[in-house]
Specification:
This is Nucleotidyltransferase domain-containing protein. The chain is of the alpha+beta class. It contains 4 helices and 4 strands, in the order αββαβααβ.
């Protein structure tokens, strides 16, 4: 994945969501992205009551980007609550991920 593509994805996410942080995680963050891999992003935003709705808005703005993207919207409170809970994606995303945006 090129840095230009990553920059464009981040720009579009920021434009729609105005998050505090964006973390790229999964195979792309580990440098092991294959031709069929998607890009996984943890989008951190305060005060979001409808996480799924915001994720859908982000997906719409990424239409046509040319790669599959997976968006997970969380709040800072979610991070505090679930970062050490087994079975959630937040902990691994924070440990293995790469912060690509911070407000």
């Amino acid at each position: 994945m090129s840095e230009t593509l990553l920059d464009e994805i981040v720009r579009r996410i920021v434009e729609v969501a105005r998050p505090e942080r964006i973390i790229l995680f999964g195979s792309a963050a580990r440098g092991r992205r294959g031709p069929d891999s998607d890009l996984d992003f943890l989008v951190v935003k305060s005060g979001v009551s409808h996480r799924r709705r915001l994720a859908q808005q982000i997906h719409r703005t990424l239409f046509g980007i040319g790669v599959p993207v997976d968006i997970i919207v969380v709040t800072p409170e979610d991070i505090q609550t679930f970062r050490d809970k087994v079975g959630t994606i937040i902990g691994p995303a924070l440990r293995e991920g790469r912060e690509v945006y911070a407000a």
